[in-house]
């Protein structure tokens, strides 16, 4: 052991140690960074899916719309249910004037008035927009404009991006992603120009908002918002439910079935969004495998340099053997190289990757907040992924040093005198 | 101290050839008393280094018995672990080309055999320093020589460091393979005189291979290796 510490650490030059440790640490940092970022993305997506969309939607198309509230009353009173709302068709729900933004490059620069007609949901109270709430929002956008509504053209498909918090105030809950909204834009000449938009919900806006050229956005002054007129609104025939424990949706479905009967259509968030979550898991697995190749390359570096050391230090190894060093201590000396490289790589790479992911997450949140109101997200550490990365780093580095180390301990001490 | 009985060593004549073998040692019978300096002479290729390899337990004999300090080492008798133990504790080696570890300082090189034995670094350091004080002059020690690497000292100093490394663990037997073969005449004389002085002072048993007739004459016993057999001169 003492020989291992005494001579083993001198086997590699400082430059070689730095190269090997740097390579392994970089590979580990890359894995941690991508895994943490993807986990962050997965958590944000799940949170967004749970926040912006109903956890459970119960529909009964045959039932007259007026009876829906009565029919599902027992369901909405279940202890698992946090809140429920009945589908509501909004017509002329709110109206405001859009001023020309200070930028001349906006797409709808001539629009002075906008009317939105679309579907949204009412959380068991009359639809009303309290302008005071909206106006109390801190102004965080540029040019003194507030991002009440941000409209953008994205890949030729029009989308309406709505601030999540504002959307909650306007519609009770955030607008679901992918819903259709008709927006009637009135230009300065008083002509109505109808545009069909797809709401991006509370999650996608952030993504699109970053990718989208902000020159194609329209900003609305809060002062221009007019009181709403909800006289044209009417009920739909579905009940949307938010659960206290969204993850236990399957248990609630069984209860709902027993209460509401089999002629109802029940849609759970986990089934509706399973493809999205499965895609993220697949993406994580694929990227983990891809980044593992980096670790493989770093381990090849360990193999290459340790092989070179065995060739270079042939005489020194033979001398140590002649002086009585056991094959085990020679083996340990080289395995120790792999062990030190893996340990230093893990100790440097893990925090570095995590800090990089945390900074990236922080910057991303800041960037998103300049477009839409988003919750501050914390960097999520994928513990299982990190454990796997640690194990792989040790496995790869030890294997990489084991192969050349086999050649080292097979060097015969007698070869020293024969070579003279 | 050292006893060889019908010691034989042969090597395959060609690679992968087991039937055709070249016999280098053909039954060496030899006995060496403790505290003796034995010089082995002979032409190149006569098997001197092979004999030293066998005596130094670096190689195993094809046939015959070898006894060092009462322990028998025949063909395939000793286990590698036992050989390592004996090499690290009972035998010291001085090679023609000093074979000091270039990454280590003079002091650290002398510490190596003790570290192999499993001694602590501080204990090894103090033993190595004592040994070096015995072999180097005060001027040399004052010039911080022991903290220099082998690249930064002379050939004679390297060989003296190698002698210190061989003696630091107080081995029962010292094997020296042409210890001055790589040095100029004056330095060779200086190193050999030192070896002789140490041998006399410590009553060490040394088996030395040399081509230098003058040095061989100053040994207690001189043997010639001829036709694979050891003969007294």
Low-pLDDT windows of residues of chain B: none
Poorly predicted sequence stretches spanning 5 or more consecutive residues of chain A: 89-163, 170-188, 193-230
Categorize the overall geometry of chain B: globular
Question: What order do the helices and strands of chain B follow?
Answer: EEEHEEHEHHHHEHEHEE
Structural category of chain B: alpha/beta
Estimate the helix proportion of chain A, in percent.
40-55%
Mean pLDDT of chain B: 85
Number of strands of chain B: 10
For the termini of chain A, the CA-CA separation is 30 Å
Number of helices of chain A: 14
* Chain pair with largest interface: A-B, 25 and 37 residues
Structural category of chain A is alpha+beta
Strand content of chain A: 15-25%
Task: Give the helix tally of chain B.
Answer: 8
% residues in beta strands of chain B:
25-35%
Tell me how many strands of chain A there are: 11
The helix/strand order of chain A is HHEHHEEEHEEHEEHEEHEHHHHHH
Spatial order of the strands forming the largest sheet of chain B: 6-7-8-3-9-10
Mean pLDDT of chain A: 67
Rounded radius of gyration of chain A (Å) = 31 Å
What is the CA-CA span between the terminal residues of chain B? 21 Å
Task: Pick out its properties.
heterodimer; A: 420 residues; 14 helices; 11 strands; B: 233 residues; alpha/beta; four-stranded antiparallel beta sheet; 26% strand; globular
Written account of the structure:
- The complex is a heterodimer of chains A (420) and B (233).
- With 420 residues, chain A is α+β, with helices and mostly antiparallel strands.
- Chain A is 50% helix and 17% strand.
- Chain A has 14 helices and eleven strands.
- In chain A, strands 1, 2, 3, 4, 5, 6, 7, 8, 9, 10 and 11 form an eleven-stranded mixed β-sheet that branches.
- In chain A, helix 10 runs parallel beside helix 13.
- The radius of gyration of chain A is 31 Å and the shape is rod-shaped.
- Chain A starts with a helix and ends with a helix.
- Mean pLDDT of chain A is 67; it is low at 89-163, 170-188 and 193-230.
- By secondary structure, chain B is α/β, with parallel strands linked by helices.
- Chain B has helices spanning 48-55, 80-89, 106-117, 121-135, 138-142, 155-167, 185-202, 213-217, and strands spanning 2-12, 21-32, 37-41, 63-68, 71-72, 91-94, 173-177, 205-209, 221-226, 229-232.
- In chain B, the strands form two sheets. Chain B has a six-stranded mixed β-sheet. In chain B, strands 2-1-4-5 form a four-stranded antiparallel β-sheet, covered by helices on one side.
- In chain B, helix 3 crosses helix 4, helix 4 (121-135) crosses helix 6 (155-167) and helix 6 (155-167) packs parallel to helix 7 (185-202).
- Chain B starts with a strand and ends with a strand.
- Chain A binds chain B through residues 1-3, 6-7, 10-11, 315-316, 319-320, 322-327, 329, 412-414, 416-418, 420, and chain B through 49, 52-53, 56, 58-59, 80-81, 84-89, 93, 95-97, 99, 101-104, 108, 111-113, 115-121, 165, 177-178.
């Amino acid at each position: 052991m003492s020989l291992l510490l005494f001579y083993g650490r001198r086997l590699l030059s400082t430059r070689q140690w730095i190269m090997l440790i740097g390579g392994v640490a970089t590979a580990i940092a890359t894995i941690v960074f991508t895994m943490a970022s993807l986990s962050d993305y997965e958590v944000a997506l799940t949170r967004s899916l749970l926040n912006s969309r109903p956890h459970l939607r119960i529909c009964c198309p045959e039932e007259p719309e007026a009876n829906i509230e009565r029919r599902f009353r027992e369901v909405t009173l279940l202890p698992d249910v946090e809140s429920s709302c009945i589908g509501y068709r909004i017509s002329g729900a709110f109206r405001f004037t859009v001023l020309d933004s200070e930028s001349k490059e906006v797409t709808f620069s001539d629009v002075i008035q906008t009317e939105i007609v679309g579907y949204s949901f009412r959380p068991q109270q009359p639809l009303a927009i309290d302008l005071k709430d909206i106006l109390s929002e801190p102004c965080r956008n540029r040019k003194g404009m507030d991002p009440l509504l941000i409209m953008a053209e994205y890949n030729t498909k029009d989308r309406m991006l709505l601030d999540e918090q504002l959307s909650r105030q306007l519609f009770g809950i955030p607008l679901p992603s992918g819903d259709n909204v008709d927006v009637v834009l009135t230009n300065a000449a008083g002509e109505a120009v109808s545009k069909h938009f797809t709401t991006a919900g509370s999650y996608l806006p952030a993504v699109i908002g970053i990718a989208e050229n902000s020159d194609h956005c329209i900003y609305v002054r809060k002062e221009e918002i007019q009181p709403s007129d909800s006289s044209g609104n009417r009920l739909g025939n579905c009940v949307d439910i938010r659960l206290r424990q969204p993850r236990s949706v399957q248990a609630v479905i069984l209860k709902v079935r027993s209460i509401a009967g089999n002629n109802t259509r029940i849609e759970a968030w986990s089934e509706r969004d399973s493809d999205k979550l499965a895609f993220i898991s697949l993406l994580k697995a694929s990227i983990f495998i891809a980044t593992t190749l980096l670790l493989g390359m770093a381990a090849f570096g360990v193999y290459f340099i340790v092989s070179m050391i065995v060739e270079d230090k042939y005489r020194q190894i033979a001398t140590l053997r002649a002086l009585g060093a056991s094959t085990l201590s020679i083996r340990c000396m080289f395995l120790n190289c792999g062990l030190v490289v893996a340990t230093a790589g893990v100790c440097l790479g893990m925090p570095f990757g995590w800090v990089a992911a945390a900074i990236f997450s922080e910057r991303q949140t800041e960037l998103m907040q300049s477009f839409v109101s988003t919750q501050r997200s914390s960097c999520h550490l994928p513990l299982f992924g990190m454990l796997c990365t640690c194990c792989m780093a040790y496995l790869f580095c030890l294997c990489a040093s084991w192969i050349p180390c086999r050649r080292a301990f097979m060097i015969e001490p007698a070869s020293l005198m024969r070579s003279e | 101290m050292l006893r060889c009985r019908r010691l034989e060593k042969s090597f395959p004549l060609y690679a992968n050839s087991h039937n055709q073998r070249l016999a280098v040692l053909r039954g060496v019978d030899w006995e060496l008393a403790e505290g003796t300096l034995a010089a082995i002479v002979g032409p190149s290729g006569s098997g001197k280094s092979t004999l030293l390899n066998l005596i130094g337990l670096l190689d195993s004999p094809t046939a015959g018995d070898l006894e060092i300090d009462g322990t028998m080492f025949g063909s395939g008798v000793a286990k590698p672990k036992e050989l390592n133990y004996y090499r690290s504790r009972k035998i010291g080696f001085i090679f023609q080309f000093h074979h000091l570890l270039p990454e280590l300082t003079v002091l650290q090189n002398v510490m190596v055999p003790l570290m192999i034995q499993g001694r602590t670094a501080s204990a090894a350091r103090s033993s190595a320093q004592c040994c070096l004080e015995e072999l180097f002059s005060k001027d040399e020690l004052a010039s911080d020589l022991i903290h220099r690497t082998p690249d930064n000292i002379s050939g004679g100093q390297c060989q003296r460091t190698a002698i210190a490394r061989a003696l630091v663990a107080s081995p029962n037997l010292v094997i020296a393979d042409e210890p001055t073969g790589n040095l100029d005449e004056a330095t060779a004389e200086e190193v050999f005189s030192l070896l002789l002085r140490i041998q006399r002072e410590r009553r060490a048993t040394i088996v030395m291979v040399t081509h230098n007739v003058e040095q061989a004459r100053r040994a207690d016993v001189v043997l010639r290796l001829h036709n694979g057999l050891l003969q007294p001169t």
